[in-house]
């Protein structure tokens, strides 16, 4: 990650990342730390060791706040704590998600509510929580993680793909609402990124090969491959880009 481009305007920026201690989120945390940003992140599991690792690797320690993002009051309290420590949040990355597999006939109302809470509801209320601070700061950037899963019409997790599609609608509406205050809202849709969780739960040799065969670029995606796009969307380099969805998937879906 030391070869990532430098975005000087991200130095000392107050960044808040959901799910920032593992998977793609951990790479995002590291990427922003290497830019000199002040990073706070939340997740349920303990990330103290990860914070130690990041401080040693980057010379910049993130602020870890334990939080279940389905607890909206706790999520918004965590955002307030991050703002108290680092100044108003000017970059929000709604990254945390759960793509637990399920079939329609197995879904209960409780499971539906749980999945939507993680994959969509928390995004809205995190954006709501950072809005006053971003207004006061004169602007900001909100980056909502979606997925190409709904674009592909994938089966096996219909509530997850429903939320993915909903994130695009949310992104466009918030971009329109927040734009007059110079707050940009964009979505980022990764392809099949080979996090440790994906390798442990879902990756098979046949399935991965079939997916790579659909890619224009034949390399598998790693968490670090997503970092540059997020830094770009967070930086003023993209200051006139809002309401858009940036796809980083090796060319599985081609849009335009």
From TrEMBL:
Domain of life the protein comes from: Bacteria
CDD domains: SDR_c
Every Ketoreductase domain range: 13-192
Keywords: Oxidoreductase
GO molecular function, one term: oxidoreductase activity
Positions in coiled-coil regions: none
Record InterPro entries: KR_dom (IPR057326), NAD(P)-bd_dom_sf (IPR036291), SDR_fam (IPR002347)
Family in the record: Belongs to the short-chain dehydrogenases/reductases (SDR) family.
Protein name: 3-oxoacyl-ACP reductase
Organism, scientific name: Cereibacter changlensis JA139
